[in-house]
């Protein structure tokens, strides 16, 4: 499984891709009211004919900053031997995240870490393609020692050690084949957010709840937090459609103070939400712990993670009892290697992982990670679901396959991260053909005419 040496990374290309989702308020929430789902899209070219694609998600303005950060990191990647990277992936990951100067603009957080994720995701896509396996299968087929060797345990060895991680994988070897077969045949349970974006009208929400109920969904997430009266109305309306046997989750996207979150959620408790997601500022570990404690008697858990900036923060949330649902994000932290470390900590501390996937390409990626978790680490889907947002799937070469509200394990080699060439061309910002059309129609201001800094991909 170790990769042969001799495959040099020739060059790395990054593009600023944006989709105009704000026009229809897709993806909107109480904090992010007008997002344009976007990504910094990386292609790693080797001297062979296999390419790796990776991306990191943003919501529009600022995507050019992530693109610039990818460019700053690229000298650490170009010219490297891909096989050597994969043979010591933790070592390479440490080099990328700990460059002695670049780390000052992190470390391991914010824009530079989003950029790291795009590059690391592209390298995993490359590795899986070289092995001609979907990423989940690449992970599943690795020996425990090899899989764990990809993780940098610095700063988390007080929570989980390399040896413990290896032991966890070894303890779950039995039954792997049946679990794999189940993922291919039935798939992994999903919940939908698509019915509950904040900017949707009540009529839209009703129609979408009915649509997803008919498709077999049994869990629905709605956005809350802007106006209590509206939230009470919307939750009542959604409950009326989905009934009380199905699950309802609510997401506030960080709008509240700690006490405000508790009070607001007491008002919404009558609708029996399974969790409140991102009730307050994403770095506030003790605030989340206080909210968790206060809401526990009401049967409401706290979910967070989509803006949890690295494994160290996840460690503290998990150790402090500040998250009852751990929402890893495939782009917020440093790609697959770091996400794996969070899975091991969550397993050890008994917290279920329910990945965040509201964004471009996130559903495509997290399905691989969660399927790995089921087959190799936890062996259960109990209390766990993958988020499903119906956004931009048509632009991916190997998009998701969700059937009866289950993600069917992907078959094609790679990490499902490759955009269709024509989509990448059309939605490249600001010069892509779709953007030219939208500027001409006056739907968006043309940044090239505004004396605004735009970082062009080269
Ligand atoms: C801005 C994004 O759409 C965000 O609302 C996604 C999110 O919070 C989720 O999917 O959960
Ligand atoms: Mg969320």
Automatic annotation (TrEMBL):
<dbReference type="InterPro" id="IPR013342">
    <property type="entry name" value="Mandelate_racemase_C"/>
</dbReference>
<dbReference type="InterPro" id="IPR029065">
    <property type="entry name" value="Enolase_C-like"/>
</dbReference>
<feature type="domain" description="Mandelate racemase/muconate lactonizing enzyme C-terminal">
    <location>
        <begin position="202"/>
        <end position="298"/>
    </location>
</feature>
<dbReference type="InterPro" id="IPR018110">
    <property type="entry name" value="Mandel_Rmase/mucon_lact_enz_CS"/>
</dbReference>
<dbReference type="GO" id="GO:0016052">
    <property type="term" value="P:carbohydrate catabolic process"/>
</dbReference>
<dbReference type="GO" id="GO:0000287">
    <property type="term" value="F:magnesium ion binding"/>
</dbReference>
<keyword id="KW-0479">Metal-binding</keyword>
<dbReference type="InterPro" id="IPR013341">
    <property type="entry name" value="Mandelate_racemase_N_dom"/>
</dbReference>
<dbReference type="InterPro" id="IPR046945">
    <property type="entry name" value="RHMD-like"/>
</dbReference>
<dbReference type="InterPro" id="IPR036849">
    <property type="entry name" value="Enolase-like_C_sf"/>
</dbReference>
<keyword id="KW-0456">Lyase</keyword>
<dbReference type="InterPro" id="IPR029017">
    <property type="entry name" value="Enolase-like_N"/>
</dbReference>
<dbReference type="Pfam" id="PF13378">
    <property type="entry name" value="MR_MLE_C"/>
</dbReference>
<dbReference type="GO" id="GO:0009063">
    <property type="term" value="P:amino acid catabolic process"/>
</dbReference>
<dbReference type="InterPro" id="IPR034610">
    <property type="entry name" value="L-fuconate_dehydratase"/>
</dbReference>
<comment type="similarity">
    <text>Belongs to the mandelate racemase/muconate lactonizing enzyme family. ENOSF1 subfamily.</text>
</comment>
<dbReference type="Pfam" id="PF02746">
    <property type="entry name" value="MR_MLE_N"/>
</dbReference>
<dbReference type="GO" id="GO:0050023">
    <property type="term" value="F:L-fuconate dehydratase activity"/>
</dbReference>
<protein>
    <recommendedName>
        <fullName>Mitochondrial enolase superfamily member 1</fullName>
        <ecNumber>4.2.1.68</ecNumber>
    </recommendedName>
</protein>
<keyword id="KW-0460">Magnesium</keyword>
């Amino acid at each position: 499984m170790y990769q042969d040496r001799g495959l040099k990374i020739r060059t790395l290309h990054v593009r600023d891709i944006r989709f105009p989702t704000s026009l229809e308020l897709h993806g909107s929430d109480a904090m992010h009211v007008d997002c344009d789902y976007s990504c910094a899209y990386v292609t790693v070219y080797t001297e062979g004919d296999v390419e790796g694609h990776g991306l990191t998600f943003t919501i529009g303005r600022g995507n050019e900053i992530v693109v610039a950060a990818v460019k700053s990191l690229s000298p650490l990647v170009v010219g490297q031997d891909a096989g050597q990277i994969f043979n010591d992936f933790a070592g390479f990951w440490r080099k990328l995240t700990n460059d002695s100067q670049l780390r000052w603009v992190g470390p391991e957080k914010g824009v530079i870490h989003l950029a790291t994720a795009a590059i690391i995701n592209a390298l995993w896509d490359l590795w899986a393609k070289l092995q001609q396996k979907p990423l989940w299968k690449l992970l599943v087929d690795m020996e425990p020692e090899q899989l764990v060797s990809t993780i940098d345990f610095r700063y988390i060895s007080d929570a989980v050690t390399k040896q413990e991680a290896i032991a966890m994988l070894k303890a779950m070897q039995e039954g792997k084949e049946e679990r794999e077969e189940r993922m291919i045949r039935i798939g992994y349970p999903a919940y939908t957010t698509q019915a509950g974006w904040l900017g949707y009208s009540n009529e839209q929400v009703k129609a979408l709840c009915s649509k997803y109920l008919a498709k077999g969904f049994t869990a629905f997430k709605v956005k809350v937090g802007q106006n209590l009266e509206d939230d009470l109305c919307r939750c009542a309306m959604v409950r009326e459609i989905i009934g009380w046997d199905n699950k309802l989750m609510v997401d506030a996207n960080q709008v509240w103070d700690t006490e405000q979150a508790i009070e607001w959620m007491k008002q919404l408790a009558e609708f029996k939400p399974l969790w409140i997601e991102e009730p307050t500022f994403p770095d506030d570990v003790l605030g989340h712990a206080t909210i968790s404690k206060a809401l526990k008697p009401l049967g409401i858990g706290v979910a967070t993670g989509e803006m949890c900036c690295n494994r160290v923060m996840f460690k503290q949330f998990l150790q402090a009892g500040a998250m009852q649902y751990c929402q890893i994000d495939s782009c917020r932290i440093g790609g697959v290697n770091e996400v794996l470390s969070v899975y091991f900590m969550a397993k050890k501390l008994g917290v279920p992982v329910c990945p965040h996937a509201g964004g471009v390409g996130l559903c495509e990626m997290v399905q691989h990670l969660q399927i790995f978790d089921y087959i190799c680490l936890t062996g259960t889907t109990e209390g766990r679901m993958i988020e499903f947002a119906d956004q931009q799937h048509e632009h991916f070469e190997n998009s998701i396959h969700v059937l009866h509200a289950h993600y069917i394990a992907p078959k094609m080699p790679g990490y499902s991260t490759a955009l269709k060439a024509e989509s990448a061309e059309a939605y490249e910002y600001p010069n892509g053909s779709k953007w030219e059309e939208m500027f001409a129609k006056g739907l968006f201001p043309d940044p090239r005419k505004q004396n605004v800094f735009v970082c062009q991909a080269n």
